[in-house]
Amino acid sequence: xxxxxxxxxxxxxxxxxxxxxxxxxxxxxxxxxxxxxxxxxxxxxxxxxxxxxxxxxxxxxxxxxxxxxxxxxxxxxxxxxxxxxxxxxxxxxxxxxxxxxxxxxxxxxxxxxxxxxxxxxxxxxxxxxxxxxxxxxxxxxxxxxxxxxxxxxxxxxxxxxxxxxxxxxxxxxxxxxxxxxxxxxxxxxxxxxxxxxxxxxxxxxxxxxxxxxxxxxxxxxxxxxxxxxxxxxxxxxxxxxxxxxxxxxxxxxxxxxxxxxxxxxxxxxxxxxxxxx
Amino acid sequence: xxxxxxxxxxxxxxxxxxxxxxxxxxxxxxxxxxxxxxxxxxxxxxxxxxxxxxxxxxxxxxxxxxxxxxxxxxxxxxxxxxxxxxxxxxxxxxxxxxxxxxxxxxxxxxxxxxxxxxxxxxxxxxxxxxxxxxxxxxxxxxxxxxxxxxxxxxxxxxxxxxxxxxxxxxxxxxxxxxxxxxxxxxxxxxxxxxxxxxxxxxxxxxxxxxxxxxxxxxxxxxxxxxxxxxxxxxxxxxxxxxxxxxxxxxxxxxxxxxxxxxxxxxxxxxxxxxxxxxxxxxxxxxxxxxx
Lengths: 277, 291
What we know:
The complex is a heterodimer of chains A (about 280) and B (about 290). By secondary structure, chain A is mainly alpha-helical. Chain A has a single domain (about 50-275), classed as MetI-like (MetI-like fold, Orthogonal Bundle). Chain A has 14 helices and no strands. Chain A has helices spanning about 5-35, 40, 55-65, 65-100, 100-115, 120-130, 140-165, 165-175, 180-190, 195-210, 210-215, 225-235, 240-260, 265-275. The two termini of chain A are about 35 Å apart. The mean pLDDT of chain A is about 90. Chain B has a domain at about 60-255: MetI-like fold (Orthogonal Bundle), CATH 1.10.3720. Chain B has a two-stranded antiparallel sheet with strand order 1-2. The mean pLDDT of chain B is about 90. Chain B has about 290 residues and is mostly helical. Chains A and B meet through helix 1, helix 4, helix 5, helix 6 and helix 7 of A and helix 1, helix 4, helix 5, helix 7 and helix 9 of B.
């Protein structure tokens, strides 16, 4: 069926190049430029050939301690939000997969409906409450917010994955006298690993990169890495691009590597979540 | 099917329901109440009816923000769907190093808005940025995103498309992969190839996925905040604000919680309106199957 002629092959090669350049060039450029000296960053002659230097990273380390503190905060918040979101999504996904009633259906509909409410809207009432509770600028508030905004998608994804686990397995366990929680722990948990990975990819990428909530609810102690990078954009205004590139690269590369590694789960989760709602 | 909810199921869904109910739903309802009151920080609220809505709807900055949002959403979502569709068809037609290319295409999904702003500002830095020089080489005027509002919105759109194309692409590509090859073989026997095959086989079968991708992207693009905030800050002179930025400024800079709440509630209504058909069909499907 497929005729492979030379013009088609050339056209395809060109298409691949365009797609790859569009997707990766902006990322590659700032990672590369983070190893350039100030002199080389905007120089035409040293666009691709230059003497690499770690000066920007040294400067980042000595002058922007805040950034590394932010990275640590991002790490804590991301881990907390992921564990919380995956755990509660697993429980709810199991319930929606194995039980059916009008009430449950209504609550599943509610979960989908809730995704329509923009996050910025709820910052208005939450801001005074969070301050009053003394939760402002804590890891806790970000963990709860990030997890909450992903539990509805998480539940839908988990339900799709748990639907594929044969019911006979939990029935067999039930006959052996296992309780609901034991069934989840012993039967579902090991078999739903793929779904849990898919949910974690969403939450990790979101929590690691999120800006709005961190901007509104944190100031110093729990300030996350994207916030510090944003401050650097404001502070440098065309002068200290090098340090900014170094910070962006450090913020970006771990989660980029993670997404590439978890590609399969990301695709599976995206399709499961979108098709079902 | 049982019509009563077993207690254990109730216990299992309660953490999720309490989280979204307590942190998203109730506050959203409370925003409605806030929108009917005059209040700011440390000040008791007083009922003012629809005055906040009147104030917001009479504010030229609100209309500017609304128009900007609609323009950006329209550009971003439609360009994204078109590019996503083209890429999905391109991938489906067989590409060299498919797995590697797929990983490359997904890469922007991992990038934060903040880092994306750094990248695109670097590319379009006046005079010295790579894209600025490319534009100059073609004899085109530079993108003056910090000076001209339309250029600022262009940068914001470009940035959003770049960040979210992986999502639209994956949804469409997954749908394309589930179209069986036999359909094209049968179509080819009947003389449907190329454009006809696309119009009669591919497009109808991809329509549900395209609609879902469009719906999600409309809803999420409508809340656009970080890209604008970090790229232009809404400036120069409040000309590039979008709805979420307008809301943020009203609430946290101008201390006008009532107006911000009214804006917030309008945002919620707009999202609901966009999703109305989707919600209705979903509702019917869910309750037909299990009721």
